[in-house]
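> @MW can you paste both from yesterday?
MW: sure, first one:
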Amino acid sequence: MNTVEHRHFETSLGTGLPMVGVLTGSDGVRQMVTDTRERTEGTGNNDCIRMIKMLDPPVDIGRMHITPGYFRGSRRYALERCDLLWNAITDMDQNAETLEVARKMLTGVKKPVINPPELIPRTRRHEIPKVLANLDGVKAPKALRFKYPTLERLKRLVADHDFKFPAIVRPVGTHSGQVVGLFNAVEDLEVIFGDRKTEYYMTEFVDVRRPDGYYHKTRLYFVGDEILIRQHIISDEWSIHGRSGRGVLATNENLQAECRAMLVNGFEALPAPTRAALHSIRQRVGLDYCGLDCAVVEDGSIVVFECNATMNFKPNFLNPATQHNRAALPRMLSALRRLIHAKTGLGPAGEGPSTSEADAQTVRA
C-alpha cells in the first residue's frame, strides 16, 4: 500500500493575502502536473486563473492540477491551506471523469468553494432549459442530446419530447460556433445518419433577428451576485461568435455605436425588466462565476443561447474596432475582488461596479 504524500503546492506570491486554490484538469491528460510553472491542457476549463492573477492588490494562487486517476496516485493536495477553493473544471461533456474527482476531493471540505463540481452538470445544453424553465421574461429553447442517429430513432425522439423544428445541430463538447448546421426537418439530418462515433445536441431554433435584419448577441458574466456585460456582437448571420465582429459589424458605424454603448454604459443601463430576468437566471443557475450568451429582444426579454462556467473572459483586446470591450475589464476585476472578499472575509472588498470616468473616456475615444 502506497503512502500518501500531501502536496504543499507552490504559491505565486506568499503575500499573506487570501489564498485561492484553483482546481484544473482535463480527461485527456492522465499525468498530474504539479509544477505551476509548467503549462497544462485547458480543455473544458475556464480562464479564471488568468483573471485572478490580474487583481491588484493581488491574491495568492495555488494551481491544483488533477487527473481522472488522482485517487489512484500517492499525491494529495493540502486543501486546508487554502482560504478559498475554486473549481475551474467546468465542461461536463469533455471532463466528466475529472469533474467527478474534483467533487470527491471537495466533499466534506470546510472551505468556501467557487462553482461546486456537483452544480456543473446542470449547465449542459440539454439541461439548462429545464433549470431555467418558467422564469418570467426568459426563454431557454429546448435541447435534446442523442447518439447513433437514424431517421426512425430521431423521429421517435422528436415526437417523445414535442420538439419543434427548425433546429441547430452540433457535436457534444463543442463551442465557438462549431455546428453541423440549421435544419428545417428531421429528414434533413441525413448527413449524420449512421454516425456511430459522435454524440450530438439538437436545439430548437429561435429566430431573434430584429426588424433591421440583424442578429444581436450579448455575452454577460455572473460574478457572485453581480452581472456585467463582456461583449455585444451584431451579425447578419444567425450563428454569432467572436469572429462575427469581423463581418458587417466592422464596417457599419451605427452597429458599432450600439455595441460601444452597450459596453460603456454597462448592465445598469439595461431596462429594469431585462435586469430582473438576468438576475433570475443567475439565481436559478447558482454558480458564482458563470457566463451567459443570449439575445435581448425588443420587449426586454431574454432568449438564452448558452449558460455555463466554461466561457473564457479573454482579457486580450486586439481588434481595433472593438476596443469598447475594454470597459468590461475593470468591472470584472472589481467584481472578482468583491467575490473573494465575500467568500473569505480577507483582502480588499473592491471598488464600485462601474468603470471610472477615466476608463469610460478612454473607451469612448
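MW: second:
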Amino acid sequence: MHVPQEAAGDRGITGAGVRRGPPVDGVYGTLTPPTLGQVAFYYDLPEIGAGEDGEMIVESIQRRIVFDARMSPATFRAIARWMMDQVEDYDRQEREGRSP
C-alpha cells in the first residue's frame, strides 16, 4: 500500500503503521544454502574534520546498518526476483519515454 507523503506527515509512519527509516546508500547480502538468506541495508556517515588551512575534509566514513534481515533462501530468491521485475518495468517505462 502506498501512502502519499502528505498523508504520512512528518512522523515517518505510513498508513499501515510501518515506521520509515532513514534513506539508505546501499545494501549487501548473502545466500548461504540450505539455511540462510541475509540482506543488510546501510547508510554511510562521513566524519568531517578540518584540514591544515581550515577547510572541511572527510576524515573517514562510518557505515551504519539500518536494517539487517534474515530469511529462508526461498524468501531471498522471491524478493530478488520481485526486485528484478521492478527494475525491468522501470527500464521499459524509461525506454518508452514514460515517467516511471
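> thanks! Residues 1-11 have pLDDT under 50 and may be disordered.
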